[in-house]
Amino acid sequence: MRRALKKDHLIEVAAKLFNRYGYHAAGVDRVIAEAGIAKTTLYRHFKSKDDLIVAVLRRVDAQYRDNMREAVDKSASEPWQKILATFDVLETWFAGATFFGCPFMSAASEYGDRSNPVFQEVVMHKRLMVAYFEELARGAELENPHRAAETIHLLHEGATAVAQVIGEASAAAKAKTIAAKVLKET
Amino acid sequence: MRRALKKDHLIEVAAKLFNRYGYHAAGVDRVIAEAGIAKTTLYRHFKSKDDLIVAVLRRVDAQYRDNMREAVDKSASEPWQKILATFDVLETWFAGATFFGCPFMSAASEYGDRSNPVFQEVVMHKRLMVAYFEELARGAELENPHRAAETIHLLHEGATAVAQVIGEASAAAKAKTIAAKVLKET
DNA sequence: CTATAAGTAGACAGGTCTGTATCGTTTGTC
DNA sequence: GACAAACGATACAGACCTGTCTACTTATAG
Predict the structure, then answer these.
(1) Backbone region of residue B26 per phi and psi (left: phi > 0; alpha: psi in -120 to 50; beta: other values)
(2) CB contact under 8 A, A112 and B20
(3) Distance of alpha carbon B81 from its chain centroid, rounded?
(4) pTM for the whole structure
(5) Given a cut of 90, is residue B30 above it in pLDDT?
(6) Rounded to whole angstroms, how far apart are CA atoms B41 and B39?
(7) Cα–Cα distance measured from residue B181 to residue B186, given in angstroms and rounded to the nearest whole number
(8) Which of B55, B97, B106, B108 has its CA 20 to 30 A from that of B119?
(9) How far is the CA of A134 from the C1' of D10 (A)?
(10) CB A157 within 8 A of CB A165
């Protein structure tokens, strides 16, 4: 493997393990074993495990939002339909075998101190999601785009939590139905 | 302190620490130090830390639902208003200094294996919450009580997640508004 | 080709984790 | 008041944690 790609691969593997087992439960030894690199290499790229976690969250944030944008744009062209399409993306995520709840909410739970860089990365991700929803709401010419965005965000979070615990991807469809009802006439 | 109360106090302290720092981050040494008991005593009552966590979740579940019922019954007598009142209870919780997200969602994140007793306790709690919401929905004579209950549950989860990350208790009021809109005409 | 940077392997330090063993003390009960 | 159960204090085992250090190897750029 090319050297420039080693760091990427490391982040990818770490993301997978943190997502599945949690940030405390997945140790550095396990990450390097799974990634097939030496511990020295990890600590050359990241000065600490927390540093790695922040990098992982940044990566997951980028991937998540890129994937969301792409899937939404592909499945709908009409602005209002795009908003509803975000819930379909959610459902696909829930139905996948690698869904263990929102990695950002997990991080916020395990690093509950708001001053922690990990927590701040979570806040950043959620704000970017709200910003994206607001962009969609503006496109659909909803009356109060920011308020609509917060509503969509709240429904996304609710669906994710329900899907994680109850284990049914249909929570996304429920949230979609609620969104359709509540956003139309505001 | 009376001996029969020691166990209760231990569970109480453990609940507080797990809620604030997370289940992995808060070790048994810290729990016993804060509770003022010996490690021997803890392991006489619980055969493992996981066992303690399950006991904590059971306790928190009972307290949470008792508190919800009591507060709802006190603030509203009309069935439909009781449903809306659940969101006020949520807001009070969010505004408190001891709010660090839902302890059950945190547990589900840290013990993601569905076969784990900890996870199953989380599932039980959420099912009981849905059952309570369904009871309220039935009282309010909503058309589809179970569906309404799931909607209320989803909104509760969404509000909790938003409040945890964004840090604004008003997420509960937002969820309340959505509930009022979407549940009335179904 | 050669210098330099990055990689591997693995021991190791120092701390923390869960859980157990020992033993003296306190407390509730009969 | 005596006895048994529970508790406190503490040392300890053994595993695992993050992070560092050394020594050797490989790959890349000039």
Answers:
(1) beta
(2) yes
(3) 21
(4) 0.95
(5) yes
(6) 5
(7) 10
(8) B97
(9) 59
(10) no
